Amino acid sequence: MGNDSSKSATTHRTSGRKKLSLGVKRGPSVSVIQRHLETAQKSRVLQLRNFGMKILPEQLQEVCEILRNLDVSQNRIRTIPIFIGSFSNLKQLHLCNNELESLPNEIGVLKKLEVLDLSCNQLGCLPESLAGLCSLKILNISKNKFTHLPICVCHLSALNILDISSNFIEFLPDEVKFLKTSELNLNQNRLNSLNAANLMHCEALRILRVEENCLNKTDFISDFLINSNNWNFILTQGATFKQSVELKRLFSFHYDVRLFQFLCGKRMKKLGSVNATNPKENEHVWVPDAIEGFVLGVVIRNVADDRVLLKIEGTGHEKTICREELQSVNPAKLDKIEDMSSLSYLNEACVLHNLRQRYYSSLIYTYSGLFCVVINPYKWMPHIYSTTVMKSYRGRKRHEVPPHIFAVADCAYHEMLYQREDQSILCTGESGAGKTENTKKVVQYLADIAGAGRHMRSSVARSPGKGQLENQLLLANPILEAFGNSKTIKNDNSSRFGKFIRINFDQSGCISGANIEHYLLEKSRTVRQAENERSFHFFYQLLLGSSISKKGTFLMDDIDNYRFLTNGNLIIPNVDDASDLSNTLNAMKGMDFSDTDIDAVMRITCAILLLGNLSFSEDRTSDQAILVDDRVAQKICCLLGLPVSDLAKAFLKPRVKVGRDYVHKAQTREQVQYAVEAIAKASYERMFRWLVTRINRSLGRSANSGATFIGI
Question: Bias category Polar residues: which stretches (predicted)?
Answer without folding.
Answer: 1-13
